[in-house]
Amino acid sequence: MRQSVLDVSARYYINRRVAIVGTLPVSMNNFSMIYPPKGPVIGQRAGWDINGVGDLALVTQVSLVDPKDHPFENCIVGLGMKIPTGNWDERRVIPNLNGQNFASRAVYPAAVMPGDGGTGIIATLDAYKTFRVNRFLRGKTLFVAGSYLSNPRNTNGTSSIIGSAGVPLTPNFLDELTNSVSDAYSVQTGLSMKVPGTWNKPKLKGLRMRLVGRWEGVRAHDLFGPAGGYRQPGWAMSVGPGLTYANGKDVLMIDVPIVFSRYINASRSAVPGPSNGATPAPFNPERNLGLVAPVSITMRYVRSF
Question: What's the rounded Cα separation, in Å, for the pair 114 and 221?
Answer without folding.
Answer: 22
